[in-house]
Amino acid sequence: MNCLMTAWHQHEAELRGWLRRRLGNGADAEDLLQEVFLKAMRQGERFCAIVDARAWLYEVARNALADRLRLARATVELPDDLSADTEEAAAVDSLAACLPRVLAELSPEDREAITLCDLERLPQEEYARRKGLSLPGAKSRVQRARKRLRARLTEVCQVSVDAAGQVSDFVPRPPLA
Fold first, then answer.
1. Could you tell me which of 73, 85, 125, 160 has the fewest CB atoms within 10 Å of its CB?
2. What is this structure's pTM?
3. Cα–Cα dist 122/28, whole Å
């Protein structure tokens, strides 16, 4: 467990600051930080086998933060007579099925930028730090990847967008087997 305490002392302040910036509340950040520490402790000796303790701690913190934010969302009771638009839901599912296939066709650099920043919601500042880029350089890389993704979706799935940038039409493409 000495490896846990060493890793914890090295990264605790950084994790605390990261959580405070995202939660905007010191007490909530401390609560979440404690959850992360408890999860690390529950690993026992397995924690010592983790190659990158900092990355593991951030992953646990990111997941705990996502869970907390998901639970904090306000919910609204829907009326019983509200029917789901199954045709629209099927169209969204078909478009969602096209995305993994088109992502797989992008360059590894573009795929990584889209996956981390857009799908996993990694802040571009953190992406820049991980890739050793300046923040403007990282933002440019993400924007170029988004542009290429949009072009591929437009070409391959024949996605059309309206003036507001919303998908107005597309031709479904079967997902990869």
1. 73
2. 0.45
3. 20
Cα 80 to Cα 20, 29, 83, 84: the distances in Å are: 40, 38, 8, 11
Kindly report, residue by residue over 100-127, the tens digit of the pLDDT.
778 888 999 999 999 999 888 899 999 9
Residue ranges of domains in the chain, CATH in brackets: 2-72 (1.10.1740), 87-169 (1.10.10.10)
Cα 97-60-35 angle, rounded to 5 deg: 135
Task: At 35, list the tokens.
Answer: 């959850």
CA-CA distance, 53 to 132, in Å (whole number)?
A: 20
Q: Rounded to an integer, what distance in angstroms lies between the CA atom of residue 4 and that of residue 43?
A: 9
Q: Is the pLDDT of residue 142 over 80?
A: yes
Q: Are 7 and 53 in contact (CB under 8 A)?
A: yes
